[in-house]
């Protein structure tokens, strides 16, 4: 475990002072500010020096984010959530030095948005059953197949894509991860409209897409191990955010409470207080997890945060709808099919109520989180996995 020493915190605070003094966050364009933050090692403080980090404990990201947000600066996660939270840790762990130098900085600044191409129509919870094929051809690979639910693919410059390179291996062994140029010939992105009315995610079809072998992430056949880095970080990215006390989604409830006519209603007040406590417990649990986390990939504690956040968000937003009464039925912005440039817009409560329903699906369903916690934390017997030792090509599928 990486321990936090006072001088590390002091060093980070001094670098934040320098960043904010040299780049006024109120007047500096966001990409320029974030570029300077990257160069000072304050992008992912736990990444190595030269890759946007300082090799320190990730706990210090709380300090950096509080300083930057407090000064009115931009947050990389908001501009490029999949890139910042999932693709970058995968690149820094499994990428070549050339990939790290090429990709991490513009990813952090948001000049190049990234997406994650894992799920397929027949492979979601069981992503290791996926069918997209990658066939080697000299120094290149050719990809064919379909991905689905690909968040922000329509604005992405690059994606990380998991494909099957050996159909005759068992399913967890025959996959390989690549970086794909989302504007390469043969990549087709089609919108998928969500219940919110907008299309934040997509279907992505790949037809004879060529990827140089240099853009492989990790060894051939080791894509499952690489994807675990992405998935473990995804859970923390979705469920492990540490907002200021009273911030995050509970702030929506507090705003609705202030406007509501139910101030004198003791039952509603009691419910609100319970939600506030629950949100605070989740926030402190996430904070504790980030304090104890070593520099590398997060462990199963990410599943705790992800599962707790999904349930809390859904119950809390249902409560907000009750507080709003008939107004909750009105969708303030109309119901246009638009193409957002960032994920999970919670800007108005009606839309937020609908959007949080996806929280128990995206990044691994709540059922899957329970399986992980049962098996990996509580040590309960594993569920039967009948196809574990069978070559992928021989597993029956529809
Ligand atoms: C808003 C949103 C954004 C997303 N963004 C992306 C993205 O950017 N990239 C990407 O690759 N994917 C993305 N996904 C896909 C997401 O990862 C999958 O939807 C999720 O893993 C579930 O897979 P599935 O939809 O195929 O459901 P299935 O796996 O078919 O599951 C159906 C139901 O069966 C249950 N179930 C399945 N297996 C088990 C089991 N072993 N034990 C108990 N219950 C089980 C599930 O909990 C669920 O209730 C996104 C999804 C959403 C909703």
How many DSSP helices? 12
Q: Percent of residues in helical segments?
A: 40-55%
Q: What's the Cα radius of gyration?
A: 22 Å
The strand order across the widest sheet is 1-4-5-8
Arithmetic mean pLDDT = 92
Ligand kinds: flavin-adenine dinucleotide
Unreliable spans: none
Could you tell me the number of beta strands? 8
* End-to-end distance: 45 Å
Shape: globular
Structure, explained:
With 398 residues, the chain is an alpha+beta fold. Helix content is 42%, strand content 13%. The protein has twelve helices and eight strands. It has helices at 6-22, 30-39, 60-70, 76-79, 81-94, 97-109, 223-239, 249-259, 266-292, 301-324, 349-355, 366-377; strands at 114-117, 133-137, 140-148, 158-164, 175-181, 187-192, 201-212, 216-217. The chain has a four-stranded mixed sheet with strand order 1-4-5-8. The chain has a four-stranded antiparallel sheet with strand order 2-3-7-6, with no helix packed on it. A hairpin with a 2-residue loop joins strand 2 (133-137) and strand 3. Helix 5 (81-94) runs antiparallel to helix 6 (97-109). It is globular and about 70 Å long. The N and C termini lie far apart (45 Å). The site of flavin-adenine dinucleotide has 21 residues, from strand 1 and helix 12.
